[in-house]
Amino acid sequence: MFQFNVFGEAKIIVKKSGIREYNAGASSSEQTALKFEDEDRQLDANSLTLGLEIPKIRKEFDDAKRSFLKIPEALKGMPKMNPEGIYVNKNLRLDNIQVYGFDYDYTLAHYTANLQCLIYNLAKEHMVNELRYPESLLQFKYDQEFPIRGLYYDKQKGCLLKLDFFGSIEPDGCYFGRRKLSRKEIEEIYGTRHIGRDQARQLVCLMDFFCFSEACLIADVVQHFVDEKLEFDACYIYQDVNHAIQYVHRSGLVHRGILSDPDRYLMKNDQLLHFLRMLKEKGKKLFLLTNSPYYFVDGGMRFMLEEYLGYKESWRELFDVVIAKANKPSFYTSDHPFRCYDIQKDNLAFTKVDSFLPDKIYYHGCLKYFLQITKWNGPEVIYFGDHLFSDLRVQNEIKIQNEDTYRFEQAKFHIIQELLGRFHATVANSQISGAYRSLLEELNEERQKARYMMKKMFNRSFGATFLTDTGQESAFAYNIHQYADVYTSKPENFLLYPPEAWLHVPFDIKIMPHHVK
Predict the structure, then answer these.
(1) Residues 6+ apart with CB under 8 A from 21
(2) H helices within 68-111, ranges in order?
(3) What are the coiled-coil residue ranges (predicted)?
(4) Is there a binding annotation on residue 105?
(5) Confidence band (pLDDT; 50, 70, 90) for 215?
(6) Which of 44, 62, 63, 105 is catalytic?
(7) pLDDT at 142 over 60
(8) What average pLDDT does the chain have?
(9) Does the annotation list 335 as a binding residue?
(10) Measured by CB atoms within 10 angstroms of the end CB, which terminus of the chain is less buried, N or C?
(11) What are the pLDDT digits (tens) for 154-173?
(12) Annotation-wise, does 386 bind a ligand?
């Protein structure tokens, strides 16, 4: 925006970047001389700044490299974040909570890494047998070191992407098939690292507990077509893989596979029973709400808790209401009625459900009728796992962030990042040559080393789930920040807090409260 004001013989041009004054009465030769004098003074000032600042940056960099030879004692003494802590995005008073609800998968039930391999294998077999994909797909093997939760798949371009908090592509987190794309290739495909609104419409978010096997299978199928030099539509591959993943779940193949060998897939947990009993003793109401069928939930709960329960004691006695096949997320918006499920006959009753009995199992339903029947008030209810983003596992990432080796690399990265910022603020692109270029290359190389070391501590392909390689929060972290009031690695972590605790958002929060300040 420009404003023009006349003041005597001088014309003043005012713009947001500052004020430039021209003497309207001076001759052109005088103006030229003044201009050259101004430029000479500016060059002298720039040279003085370069002469003072660049040697300081070089000295600080050399000093820092010497300090990088061992982990400083100060880092070792830094406080650790609790891997089993409860992390707060919005203040929560537990003494106001009277009703505790739980999902089943990855909330009450925790699975071993073998589950993703089972889903992957069943899905690829379905693609070959039913969707007529090449039989060579049967040779594919699930790679648990490749995917992380929170990736995005571009249905138009066929790339797997890791995005940061602001929707930009992570420079080392873009794969086409199993090949990592360079920054130049990312720019050629997308024009910029930032995903625009139109491009975002082509992205699908891989967030649920199928996402590991789904991301790996998508990448493997894309790579197969590339290797065989076959034309393909990236959208069709997503649709077919997603169909296969959903089919093996909804058909019961995954459920039957888990129950056929529960020791291989399920993790026993006596602390879960302790937590549920503690809530009952405090007079809290408990309910279980899951998309899984009852026979699957019953088999899993009996396996996980039977050795900790007393004689003739049933896990169902812990819950006031048990709802299976809830059809989330439509459960939250639909008007579906509840149906009473007959365990012995394996069918649904036709009588209207207008009350929940503790010895009965219910199917389907919706949130509106749930609240009408129970008379529970929304603010007094907390539900673990009501959103795909809530099925979390933050414990492992916090443990890694607590390690001295990680914090050492993190400190190195931020030191180099600060020096690079000062370098670019001092030296123009046209001035980068000779000793300046050498310093810039050394700084970039040292930063890249620290970034790589931090990344591979989490996942060699995509790094951390909650962080980008530059230490910014990821798009997955953004979703947790938006949708979860509190988050933790497992429900029984609440045992570490008094039932009347008031959980506060930390005063020094960055974005995610579990990240090191």
Answers:
(1) 10, 11, 12, 13
(2) 73-76
(3) none
(4) yes
(5) very high
(6) 105
(7) yes
(8) 85
(9) no
(10) N
(11) 999 999 999 998 889 998 99
(12) yes
